[in-house]
Amino acid sequence: MKVCVLTLGCKVNKYESDSLLNIFKKQGCEITETLEKADVYVVNTCAVTGEAEKKSRQMLAKCKKLNANAKIYVCGCAAQHNWQQFLGKAALIKGVSGKNKIASLEEGVRLDDVPKEYEQEEFALQTRTRAYIKVQDGCDNFCSYCIIPYLRGRSRSRDVNSIIDEVKNLGSDIKEIVLTGINLSDFKIDGKLGLLPLLEKLDKFNLRMRLSSMEEVIADEEFIKGLSRLKNFCPHFHLSLQSGCDSVLKRMNRRYTAAEFKNTCQLIRKYFPSASITTDVIVGFPGESEEEFNQTKQFIEQVAFSGLHIFPYSHREGTVASKQKDLDFQIKKARAEQLKELDKTLRRRFIEQNKSGKVLIEEIENGKSYGFTENYIKCEIDAICKVGDIVEVNITGTDGQLAKANLV
User: Fold this and answer.
1) 401 pLDDT exceeds 90?
2) What is the largest CA-CA distance in the chain?
3) DSSP type of residue 321
4) Interior CA angle at 199 toward 182 and 305, to 5°?
5) What is the pLDDT of residue 65?
6) Which residue, 135, 190, 179, is CA-closest to 157?
7) What topology does CATH give the domain 128-234?
8) Smallest Cα–Cα separation from 139: which of 321, 326, 300, 319?
9) What is the pLDDT averaged over residues 338-348?
10) Strand, helix or coil at 239?
11) Long-range contact list for 324-330, CB < 8 A, 24+ apart?
12) What is the rounded distance in angstroms from the CA atom of residue 34 to the CA atom of residue 231?
């Protein structure tokens, strides 16, 4: 039996899909995560935006087109949010919890209650040089635009020993780990914030370490200074901004000011001068005026991020922001385009500021090697290297997105 597991959305979803792949593999199934003809499709859905839900529904249609007789199983946030949208299209509908049970190939609607404690999963199947390790689930922040806390539930943390066991069991091909969670900054050990102590424990494994994302509130000087002492920590910080305007941040229920966020970025650069700092920005939040948008744009230029993830505001029924009047789509589109142009400038500028780095080789194509530096610059190396090797390079130029590099 051939099983195809398809993932939409975040890195947490990707980890959970890889956990399912591992279970199916142990059952003797042929497995793939590429959209191709299969006997069974598992679609792990996303609901962070309306567009993400639409893509989730479209993925089912694509599966059906490849094999009309295939069984389709749906799970994830879109199914948790609105399971009715998949009725008649999927043999099994599950939500965000109990995804591992999909491997038993039951049918029907099987929505479990969101657990109050961390739900232990099968270790993820790791097939690349970089391994994602899920350590946390859920979120307590309740930002006014976000539906995820209502779907994923309250914040809960994975047992440290389980995390260490998974890292111990990684194959020798893995050279880098990325810790991920719905709100990674809220990872706790014995009820106390524990992200730094966890990284200190993992540092002994001599694997490059990254954080998938981080909230500004955790990044005080003690935390950043502690990270700087780790020999294997990669200085790429993805800090979610969402807006650079205090009045919008307040309406979003974000718990910092623009000045506090900027101070955090300066603190990071104090200890990591070559750090990459990337961020998320929502444009067209309800009531966002032209002046408020321009404040955000100016703030982004001042902080000089190395890259932006730009999202036009998406109305999510059930959130606080959904009760407010949405802005015209064309306004949101125009503002997103402005930030996309700024993003191109910022990415080019950051690459040009870097002259060297250590690259983890991830793929070879047309006689060239590709991978990322410690501070997450994707490099094209004019040489054939071995996948999994970490090589020193000089950065010689850029096309704006990709750095051109030569081996030292």
Assistant:
1) no
2) 59
3) G
4) 60
5) 94
6) 135
7) Transcription Regulator spoIIAA (3.30.750)
8) 319
9) 97
10) strand
11) 324/286, 324/287, 325/286, 325/287, 326/286, 327/284, 327/285, 327/286, 327/287, 327/288
12) 36
Question: Which tokens sit at 111?
Answer: 């929505």
Q: Which fold has domain 356-407?
A: OB fold (Dihydrolipoamide Acetyltransferase, E2P) (2.40.50)
Residue 362 and residue 386 in contact, taking contact as beta carbons nearer than 8 Å: no
Segment 188-225, tens digit of pLDDT: 999 999 999 999 999 999 999 999 999 998 999 999 99
pTM of the entire structure?
Answer: 0.94
Strand (E) positions, 46-199?
Answer: 71-76, 92-94, 108-110, 130-137, 156-157, 176-181, 188-189, 192-193
Domain map of the chain by residue range?
Answer: 2-110, 128-234, 237-352, 356-407
Token readout for 195 is: 């992200």
Listed residue (269, 230, 276, 233) closest to 403, CA to CA = 276
Q: Per-residue pLDDT for 105 more than 90? A: no
Domain 2-110 has CATH 3.40.50.12160: yes
The arithmetic mean of pLDDT across residues 79-96, rounded, is 94
Rounded average pLDDT over 230-257:
97
Spell out where 314-354 has E strands: none
- Residue 153 pLDDT more than 90? yes
Residue 330 near residue 303, CB atoms below 8 Å: no
Count of alpha carbons within 13 angstroms of residue 78, beta-carbon side: 27
pLDDT, average across residues 154-163? 97
The mean pLDDT of 251-274, rounded to a whole number, is 97
Can you give the pLDDT at residue 151?
95
- If one counts every other C-beta atom within 10 angstroms of the C-beta of residue 342, the result is 17
- Tell me the β-bridge partners of 236: 276
pLDDT > 90 fraction of the chain, expressed in percent and rounded: 93
Dihedral pair phi/psi, residue 175, rounded to 5°:
-115, -5
- Answer yes or no: is pLDDT of 150 > 90: yes
State how far the alpha carbon of 36 is from the alpha carbons of 66, 346, 373, in Å: 7, 37, 32
Q: Is 61 helix (H, G, I), strand (E, B) or coil?
A: helix
Mean pLDDT of 143-150: 96
Name the burial class of residue 150, with classes exposed (0-12), middle (13-18) and buried (19+) by CB atoms within 10 angstroms of its CB: middle
